[in-house]
């Protein structure tokens, strides 16, 4: 498909006249057009189209419609109808009143084209550029980041449902593409097991019967896979995507012993970051964080939080649910640097403040990554009692650690964690610890000997400095601003469907979040322009306002 003649976005005089007459006070769409002009241009997406072929709809219009439908929570069909029938949309898009718009079915291929070309970030980046040109992103010195869980657009399955649904997906594909071949491979009892959706309320409740069904489904899958591998089977059947999913799921859920297939025990399953939990979305992962368990993804939003301008989202990062918060900090800073939107202070919670992130933010980007740092994993640090590592004096040159009672360490070893990080392991003398009156406050070891582990000098000193700073009143006052990002997550969840996937897969979910962030920015701009006021303070109920210290 080729680009059509570039859309100019010039608003026809008749559209202006009718829109002004119908909406004398304007609408959000009209305000956006008056303040920002055309948000996208066809040239932004030129790399996604060929120079030959049939001309298609303007990609700039499709991009803007994609953002608008996330502003108003519309489906593709509803968005296409709005282009055809709404005057304020025609005003924003620069269309005549008689323009019939386009068929809703072209929005999905446009999203696919964005993803294939790696240009989905344009939905947010071009709007940020317009905001910068308008002078509304000048206050970028302070920014804050937080994350929330995202529910995949699939049914939550247990292990038995997952294997049953995986096999049923393969059978449905084979029934459509090679029905005669499939009928020759199965027996009538397969129709009873896989003829309908596999759901727990239809399955046996007795554990013994469930174990029999687990084994039967496993054997059926192996039988089908072996039939697909036979020389007389058409080779193209083995290349079906659902066949590959069947292979992966069976490797994860079953193992072979003495030539027989066996259902894996829970402790034999691969880690959650690799475990497929739905044949419909292979990248969705199951995760538990504190009291919340979900299947899907995580989204991280970074926004400005200055006092003199609207709070705009500057970056969106979507990850599998099992990706930890600290793993995305480097990517966030790298992308903000590419957009010339790096903050001087980056407010985050404890999930982001790994020591590597603290050091990299300062050394590479001159960013003060401002957030609480944990006190360490020892029982003394957790309980706030006894002697944790901060109570020990470390001589880095002599490789000697002195305990609070003045005893020197017996050994010093540099070791490596399983993830490749180095740490120092120090051990004290059994004779010194055995005679120590403070032993109970120092160690719970059965041998009564204290050992201490800590990071190498540079990382250790960074952590100690961060822990000392977070106890100061200055830090507490600075850190108060981070709480405001909770309101952004709430707005995204309640008003823009941020927490529910519209599409399947990580790439499409990220595109949804980028469009959602762009829509939130435009909504905030309109509210700012209409209210001409500072962002509203967090709501406090009349009863809560009566609490001591608030009146």
Question: How would you sum up this structure, described in words?
Answer:
- This protein has 551 residues and is an alpha+beta fold.
- It folds into 4 domains: 13-119, no CATH class; 159-268, no CATH class; 295-373 and 473-531, no CATH class; 379-458, no CATH class.
- The chain contains 21 helices and 13 strands.
- Strands 1, 4, 5, 6, 7 and 8 form a 6-stranded mixed β-sheet that branches. Strands 11-12-13 form a 3-stranded antiparallel β-sheet, with no helix packed on it. A two-stranded antiparallel sheet has the order 2-3.
Straight-line N-to-C gap? 65 Å
Structural class: alpha+beta
What is the total domain count? 4
Oligomer: single chain
Which consecutive residue ranges, at least 5 long each, have pLDDT under 50?
A: none
* Gross geometry: flat
Mean pLDDT over all positions:
91
Number of continuous helical runs: 21
User: How large is the radius of gyration?
Assistant: 30 Å
Number of E strands: 13
Largest sheet, in brief, is: 6 strands, mixed
| SS strand fraction | 5-15%
Percentage of residues in helical conformation: 40-55%
């Amino acid at each position: 498909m080729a680009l059509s003649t570039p859309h100019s976005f010039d608003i026809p005089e008749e559209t202006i006249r009718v829109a002004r007459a119908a909406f004398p006070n304007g609408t959000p769409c009209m305000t956006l057009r008056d303040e920002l002009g055309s948000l996208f241009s066809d040239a932004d997406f030129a790399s996604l189209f060929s120079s030959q072929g049939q001309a298609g709809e303007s990609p700039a219009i499709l991009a803007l419609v994609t953002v608008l439908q996330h502003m108003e929570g519309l489906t593709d069909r509803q968005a296409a109808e709005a282009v055809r029938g709404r005057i304020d949309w025609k005003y924003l898009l620069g269309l005549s009143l008689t323009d019939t718009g386009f068929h809703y079915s072209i929005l999905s291929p446009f999203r696919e084209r964005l993803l294939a070309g790696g240009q989905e970030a344009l939905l947010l980046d071009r709007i940020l550029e317009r905001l910068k040109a308008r002078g509304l992103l000048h206050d970028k010195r302070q920014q804050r980041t937080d994350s929330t869980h995202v529910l995949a657009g699939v049914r939550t399955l247990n292990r038995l449902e997952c294997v049953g649904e995986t096999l049923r997906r393969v059978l449905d594909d084979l029934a459509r593409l090679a029905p005669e071949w499939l009928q020759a491979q199965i027996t009538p009892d397969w129709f009873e097991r896989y003829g309908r959706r596999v759901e727990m309320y239809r399955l046996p409740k007795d554990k013994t019967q469930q174990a029999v069904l687990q084994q039967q489904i496993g054997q059926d899958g192996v039988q089908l896979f072996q039939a697909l591998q036979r020389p007389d089977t058409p080779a193209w059947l083995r290349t079906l995507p659902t066949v590959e999913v069947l292979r992966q799921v069976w490797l994860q859920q079953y193992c072979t012993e003495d030539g027989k297939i066996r259902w894996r025990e829970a402790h034999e399953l691969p880690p959650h970051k690799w475990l497929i939990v739905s044949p419909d979305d292979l990248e969705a992962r199951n995760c538990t964080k504190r009291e919340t368990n979900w299947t899907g993804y995580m989204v991280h939003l970074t926004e400005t939080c200055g006092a003199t301008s609207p709070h705009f989202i500057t970056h969106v990062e979507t990850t599998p649910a099992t990706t930890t918060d600290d793993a995305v900090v480097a990517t966030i800073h790298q992308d903000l640097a590419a957009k010339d939107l790096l903050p001087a202070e980056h407010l985050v919670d404890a999930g982001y403040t790994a020591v590597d992130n603290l050091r990299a933010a300062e050394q590479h980007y001159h960013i003060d990554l401002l957030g609480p740092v944990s006190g360490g994993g020892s029982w003394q640090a957790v309980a706030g009692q006894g002697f944790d590592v901060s109570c020990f004096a470390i001589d880095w040159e002599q490789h000697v650690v002195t305990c609070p009672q003045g005893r020197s360490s017996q050994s010093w070893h540099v070791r490596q964690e399983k993830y490749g990080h180095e740490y120092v392991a120090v051990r004290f003398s059994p004779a010194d610890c055995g005679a120590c009156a403070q032993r109970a406050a120092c160690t719970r070891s059965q041998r009564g000997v204290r050992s201490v582990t800590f990071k190498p000098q540079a990382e250790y000193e960074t952590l100690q400095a961060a822990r000392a700073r977070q106890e100061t009143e200055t830090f507490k006052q600075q850190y108060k601003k981070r709480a405001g990002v909770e309101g952004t997550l709430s707005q995204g969840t309640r008003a823009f469907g941020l927490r529910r996937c519209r599409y399947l897969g990580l790439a499409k979910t990220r595109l949804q979040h980028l469009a959602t962030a762009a829509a939130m920015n435009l909504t905030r701009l309109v509210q700012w322009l209409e209210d001409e006021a500072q962002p509203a303070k967090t709501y406090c109920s009349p009863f809560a306002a009566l609490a001591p210290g608030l009146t």
